């Protein structure tokens, strides 16, 4: 396990302040040894297996606004989703660049990193899991719907990671599960992709069915889905909006514009 110094702690705080100033809502730090200690993924997905010099993964999150997410599937949510992707990429690029300028090796791993949804239909997996990185960085833990649940925003966050050889003090992992096993995500999934288990919180997931549905939504210009994150009651943001933030009539109204599925009167 890497030993951190006061200089390392000062660098961590400098990076965290920079990330927050760039718009990150949450920032967490994880030593790469947590991948081998916790083993939530296979060894080939460990950052140190891909980049042997890696010592720390910095995970940043931005919130997804419930009042837009609850209109999904719609172009309104699609635009929000695309904007957060650009936002996260720029934020992470600038953090990695700062570390490079300070003499460290660093780069960011993009939020999704696939060429087209049709690729995920054939192989529904990513080269690097930001959700797992978020768990190890203390931002939250995994819910029944396989997303990262956070205290502040539930699963309504988007994530990006910076991999670096800087040795930075890790944040403590959450020791209490945030998922309340209400099964709202299971009931609301349009393709019934989740099959709950008794021996763990995360459900079995039909990733192929999920990817196929997302491919359909993309062809209709209202990708992605996000129903399982919209209905999750976990998160302080839900309290702010007191449950639901969009009327049923409002959802119908928003979904009537901008996509192939728009209602024509």
Task: Provide the descriptors you would attach to this structure in a database record.
four-stranded antiparallel beta sheet; globular; 8 strands; two-stranded antiparallel sheet; 12 helices; 265 residues; alpha+beta
Task: Give an overview of the whole structure.
The protein has 265 residues and is of the alpha+beta class. It has one domain (6-254). 40% of the residues lie in helices and 13% in strands. It is built from twelve helices and eight strands. The strands form three sheets. Strands 1-2-6-3 form a four-stranded antiparallel beta sheet, sandwiched between helices. A two-stranded antiparallel sheet has the order 4-5. A two-stranded antiparallel sheet has the order 7-8. Strand 7 and strand 8 (204-205) form a beta hairpin. The chain is globular.
Mean pLDDT: 94
Query: What's the end-to-end separation, in Å?
Result: 64 Å
Strand adjacency order, main sheet: 1-2-6-3
What is the number of beta strands? 8
What radius of gyration results from the CA coordinates? Answer: 19 Å
The low-pLDDT segments are none
Shape: globular
Written as H for each helix and E for each strand, in order along the chain, the element string is: HEHHEHHEHHEEEHEEHHHH
- Give me the secondary-structure category: alpha+beta
- Largest sheet, strands/sense/barrel: 4 strands, antiparallel
Fraction in beta strands? 5-15%
Number of individual domains: 1
Number of helices: 12
